[in-house]
Amino acid sequence: MSTAKQVLLIDPEATPAMPGLADALRAAGAEVREMNMDDYDALLDALAQGFMPVVLKVPAV
């Protein structure tokens, strides 16, 4: 049996580091949440629910 992937995208900056990533993951069948670092309770809740955290940073030029 296949289960959906749960991905938690954490953006430390105010603007998305990788625009379009969440949509691409959703298109591939993943359940995606996007958060920044200021809501600790929501971050901990998502981790407790089994979401895989991915901290994003702006790619080097």
Question: What sort of overall outline do the alpha carbons produce when their principal axes are compared?
Answer: flat
Tally of contiguous helical segments: 2
Q: Tell me the span between the first and last alpha carbons.
A: 41 Å
H/E series: EHEHE
Order of the strands making up the biggest sheet = 2-1-3
The counted number of beta strands is 3
- Main pleated sheet: 3 strands, parallel
Task: Tell me the Rg in angstroms.
Answer: 12 Å
- Tell me the structural class: alpha/beta
Proportion of helical residues = 25-40%
User: Strand share of the residues?
Assistant: 25-35%
> Averaging pLDDT over every residue, what do you get?
87
Which consecutive residue ranges, at least 5 long each, have pLDDT under 50? none
Your description of this structure?
The protein is built from two helices and three strands. It is α/β, with parallel strands linked by helices and 61 residues long. The longest helix has 9 residues, at 40-48. The mean pLDDT is 87.
Features:
61 residues; alpha/beta; three-stranded parallel sheet; 3 strands; 26% strand
Provide a quick synopsis of the model:
By secondary structure, the chain is α/β, with parallel strands linked by helices. Helices cover 26% and strands 26% of the residues.
Question: What is this structure's SSE topology?
Answer:
Blueprint lengths: L5 E6 L9 H7 L3 E6 L3 H9 L3 E4 L6
Parallel strand pairs: 1-2, 1-3
